[in-house]
Each structure stands twice: as C-alpha cells, then as structure tokens.
Design brief:
The protein has 115 residues and is an all-beta fold. 0% of the residues lie in helices and 54% in strands.
Length: 115
C-alpha cells in the first residue's frame, strides 16, 4: 500500500518561494503518475501540476511559469517548487499518485501567502 506524506508548506510573503515535498513509502514511486492538487476554502480541489513516469509535465494555466514539478525516483519523492507566490495560491496542497486502477492521496500541507 502506497503512503504519501507532504511537507514544506508554511506562511510566505507575496513574491516569495516555497518547495513542497511528497515522500512515498510502501511502493516504488517511479511507476506512478504523480500530481499536486490544491484546495482553497470554499472551492473545489484543482489540479496544479502533474508528472508522468516518463517525466512529461503539465501545469494549470494559473501557475505555468511560476511552479515546477519534479521527481527523484531514487529518493521516492516528488517536489513542487513554487516561485513568485501570490495570495491566490493560498490553499491546502495535496500530493496524488495514480497507477490505474488505484489512486492515493496525502494528508495535505497548508500554504498561506500573505503579507
């Protein structure tokens, strides 16, 4: 059973940066399609960025050019580098892993962008 644990969230000023990590245990992450989602209060959970086992990435239009998803299969970890953060990036960020037909979620990490 794959387990995911996010870390790296916190409070940051507008224009600042954070790097989120998603550490996996229980299975080899290299075969999974990975993604970061976020959910702001009162809003639906939305896809932020994804990366497939081959390394191809995709991004939401709202974060393209500011966020970068990457994976280190040797460390069984996926990252989300977030630069030029805006108040509207404030949300709980969740790590997601998919190997059909199964999908897994982490517990989430809070990111707050505020002055």
């Amino acid at each position: 059973q794959l387990q995911l644990a996010e870390s790296g969230g916190g409070l940051v000023q507008p224009g600042g940066s954070l790097r989120l990590s998603c550490a996996a245990s229980g299975s080899r992450l290299a075969v999974y399609s990975m993604a970061w989602y976020r959910q702001a209060p009162g809003k639906q959970r939305e896809l932020v960025a994804g990366i497939n086992p081959g390394g191809s990435t995709n991004y939401a239009a709202s974060v393209k050019g500011r966020f970068t998803i990457s994976r280190d299969n040797a460390k069984n970890t996926v990252y989300l580098q977030m630069n030029s953060l805006k108040p509207e990036d404030t949300a709980v960020y969740y790590c997601n892993a998919v190997l059909l037909p199964m999908g897994y979620w982490g517990q989430g990490t809070q990111v707050t962008v505020s002055s």
